[in-house]
């Protein structure tokens, strides 16, 4: 084992020191890599001698940033790519036999000429080739390609160029990368020091096919028109925000119209997404909601509009969430009042018992019907009459008894006044207890949804229990028509009824400002239903224009053009400036607990009457045929 290690060490030393000076191609490759200032993993397809290959490995491995070097044949499948594809740099020598054409075809089939792969091609000498592009005919080197071609100019210098096409049908464009000499090394031209995506933005009027979602055909004639701002608002906003990019790219525009954004059904996408996946569209002209499945077929570029889709509702009256007649006092106060009633009832009973014994000897007062008897029923009736601020024909006759009666009625007078005042205030109060989807599901609010393609798709496919229950019980119960409605109808219903409406807030709030009174704008609450509502401008997956589009769109945002359009088209949540500006009438929901108590009381009264009749007939069976009732 040691002898083998020694042998390969001596062989490596011989190969390195036997060639005291590195070849020009190796030094050129090293200088180009160093100029990029990136971590690099070299994959080389060359027909060099082993000594030259070892020399290349030795030189690149001893740089400030050591690099890995792998030599491959024409079969690209034998390469195990690193996890970071942006580090891969492919070196090809076209002066080798015809194998380089097969290698190019393999690389093209696996999209190795696109971003983020980098190439250095040792081309033919200048005097041996008619054009720098002669070895790349029929290869799609598009704007995202990074291919440096080195052509030998003389024995000690190389001319370096970069080539690409805006489209496979267009002519080649050549960028002068620099000059390399054995004396001065690489002299990189100033024009190529900026990024590829920045310097290749001149499309020279090449047509960019853009897909748009059109819900109303009137928008096609003039997508700039904002006179009917509620029609195709999202498309008009996106169209105006992406419009400057065509000037930035010096490109023309070809529009492709679609009736929907595109959703995954039956194994494929439709709508605008289909235009970018199986159609010819390069760019989406309408923003798209970001979902995990869509990330596999399109690339997201920028988020120009703060579109948010949520349930919006006015804070409902407090009676929709609570029993108003229990809210005036806290639970501890109710317990104290109950204890107070029991204590007073006990005192009344003792006092009545004492007076009854005291007055038994008096014939004048022994049959007084207004004297309070020490019976539980009479005591209860007296206490109930005091609580409800009603009088009682029975009373305590003594001085002590009158004091107890005064305390009883005074205490409940104060409690009654406080209770009544609280009820009046609570009738005009709103509830802030609806904060989550669960609260919304369990509330008495009616729910509605803006009638748009994305809502009709995302609501029925909800699988999370609460969201699914909201759709099945409040939006589309079985046997009823799903509660989808136009934006205007939904906002008007939101104004007049206890109603929650799922809508695009930026557009919906514009109607809120139009129809709502100032006091009605207060108490507007929001709850998100959709998991993801952030929208992006998208392009075809792995588009060669992706980075160029992205830079252009971000520049539009940085210059404030997107913000201008957002302020012009979308409205923000209205500010509350006149809370409590009007008083609403009391409705059935507010006092239905009292009606229920009244109904239960009537039922209980008839039940007790029936029991009394049965008890009377059992205790006093009829012994004579006729009875005389004297009143």
TrEMBL record:
<dbReference type="InterPro" id="IPR052192">
    <property type="entry name" value="Insect_Ionotropic_Sensory_Rcpt"/>
</dbReference>
<keyword id="KW-0732">Signal</keyword>
<dbReference type="Pfam" id="PF24576">
    <property type="entry name" value="IR75A_N"/>
</dbReference>
<keyword id="KW-1003">Cell membrane</keyword>
<keyword id="KW-0812">Transmembrane</keyword>
<feature type="transmembrane region" description="Helical">
    <location>
        <begin position="595"/>
        <end position="615"/>
    </location>
</feature>
<dbReference type="InterPro" id="IPR057074">
    <property type="entry name" value="IR75A_N"/>
</dbReference>
<dbReference type="GO" id="GO:0050906">
    <property type="term" value="P:detection of stimulus involved in sensory perception"/>
</dbReference>
<dbReference type="InterPro" id="IPR001320">
    <property type="entry name" value="Iontro_rcpt_C"/>
</dbReference>
<keyword id="KW-1133">Transmembrane helix</keyword>
<keyword id="KW-0325">Glycoprotein</keyword>
<feature type="domain" description="Ionotropic receptor 75a N-terminal">
    <location>
        <begin position="24"/>
        <end position="212"/>
    </location>
</feature>
<feature type="signal peptide">
    <location>
        <begin position="1"/>
        <end position="18"/>
    </location>
</feature>
<keyword id="KW-0472">Membrane</keyword>
<keyword id="KW-0675">Receptor</keyword>
<comment type="similarity">
    <text>Belongs to the glutamate-gated ion channel (TC 1.A.10.1) family.</text>
</comment>
<dbReference type="GO" id="GO:0005886">
    <property type="term" value="C:plasma membrane"/>
</dbReference>
<feature type="domain" description="Ionotropic glutamate receptor C-terminal">
    <location>
        <begin position="331"/>
        <end position="578"/>
    </location>
</feature>
<feature type="transmembrane region" description="Helical">
    <location>
        <begin position="403"/>
        <end position="427"/>
    </location>
</feature>
<protein>
    <submittedName>
        <fullName>Uncharacterized protein</fullName>
    </submittedName>
</protein>
<dbReference type="Pfam" id="PF00060">
    <property type="entry name" value="Lig_chan"/>
</dbReference>
<feature type="transmembrane region" description="Helical">
    <location>
        <begin position="332"/>
        <end position="354"/>
    </location>
</feature>
């Amino acid at each position: 084992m040691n002898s083998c290690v020694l042998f390969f060490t001596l062989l490596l030393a011989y190969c390195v020191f036997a060639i005291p000076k590195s070849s020009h191609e190796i030094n050129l490759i090293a200088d180009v890599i160093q100029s990029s200032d990136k971590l690099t993993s070299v994959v080389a397809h060359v027909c060099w001698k082993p000594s030259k290959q070892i020399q290349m490995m030795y030189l690149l491995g001893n740089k400030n940033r050591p690099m890995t070097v792998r030599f491959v044949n024409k079969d690209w499948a034998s390469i195990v790519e690193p996890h970071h594809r942006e580090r891969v740099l492919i070196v090809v020598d076209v002066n080798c036999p015809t194998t380089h054409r097969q290698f190019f075809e393999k690389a093209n089939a696996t999209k190795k000429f696109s971003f983020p792969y980098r190439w250095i091609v040792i081309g033919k000498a200048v005097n041996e080739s008619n054009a720098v592009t002669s070895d790349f005919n029929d290869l799609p080197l598009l704007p995202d390609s990074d291919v440096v071609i080195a052509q030998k100019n003389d024995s000690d210098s190389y001319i370096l160029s970069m080539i690409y096409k805006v489209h496979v049908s267009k002519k080649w464009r050549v960028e002068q990368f620099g000059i390399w000499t054995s004396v001065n090394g690489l002299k990189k031209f100033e024009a190529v020091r900026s990024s590829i995506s920045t310097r290749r933005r001149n499309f020279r009027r090449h047509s960019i096919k853009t897909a748009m979602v059109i819900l109303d055909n009137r928008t096609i004639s003039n997508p700039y028109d904002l006179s009917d701002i509620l029609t195709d608002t999202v498309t008009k906003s996106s169209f105006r925000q992406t419009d400057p990019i065509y000037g930035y790219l010096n490109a023309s525009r070809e529009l492709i119209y679609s009736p929907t954004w595109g959703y995954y059904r039956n194994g494929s996408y439709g709508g605008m997404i289909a235009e970018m996946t199986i159609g010819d569209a390069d760019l989406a002209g309408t923003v798209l909601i970001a979902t995990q499945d869509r990330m596999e077929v399109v690339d997201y570029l920028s988020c120009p509009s703060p579109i948010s889709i949520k349930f919006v509702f006015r804070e409902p009256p407090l009676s929709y969430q609570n029993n108003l007649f229990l809210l005036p006092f806290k639970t501890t106060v109710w317990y104290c009042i109950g204890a107070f009633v029991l204590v007073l009832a006990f005192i009344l009973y003792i006092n009545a018992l004492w007076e009854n014994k005291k007055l038994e000897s008096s014939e004048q007062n022994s049959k007084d019907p207004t004297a309070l008897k020490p019976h539980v029923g009479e005591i209860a009736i007296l206490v109930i009459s005091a609580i409800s601020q009603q009088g009682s024909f029975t009373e305590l006759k003594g001085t002590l008894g009158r004091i107890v009666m005064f305390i009883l009625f005074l205490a409940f007078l104060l409690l009654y006044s406080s209770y009544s005042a609280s009820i009046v205030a609570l009738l005009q109060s709103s509830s802030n207890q609806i904060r989550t989807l669960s609260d919304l599901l369990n509330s008495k609010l009616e729910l509605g949804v803006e009638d748009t393609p994305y809502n009709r798709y995302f609501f029925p496919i909800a699988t999370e229990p609460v969201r699914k229950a909201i759709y099945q019980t409040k939006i589309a119960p079985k046997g009823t028509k799903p509660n989808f409605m136009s934006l205007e109808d939904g906002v008007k219903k939101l104004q007049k009824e206890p109603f929650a409406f799922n809508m695009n807030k930026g557009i919906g709030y514009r109607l809120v400002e139009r129809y709502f009174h100032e006091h009605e704008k207060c108490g507007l609450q929001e709850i998100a239903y959709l998991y993801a509502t952030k929208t992006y401008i998208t392009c075809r997956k792995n588009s060669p224009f992706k980075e160029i589009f992205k830079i252009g769109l971000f520049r539009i945002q940085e210059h404030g053009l997107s913000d201008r359009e957002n302020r012009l088209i979308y409205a923000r949540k209205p500010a509350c400036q006149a809370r409590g500006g009007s008083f609403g009438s009391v409705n059935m929901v507010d006092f239905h607990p009292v009606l229920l108590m009244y109904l239960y009381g009537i039922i209980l009264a008839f039940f007790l009457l029936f029991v009394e009749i049965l008890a009377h007939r059992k205790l006093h069976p009829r012994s004579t045929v006729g009875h005389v009732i004297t009143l």
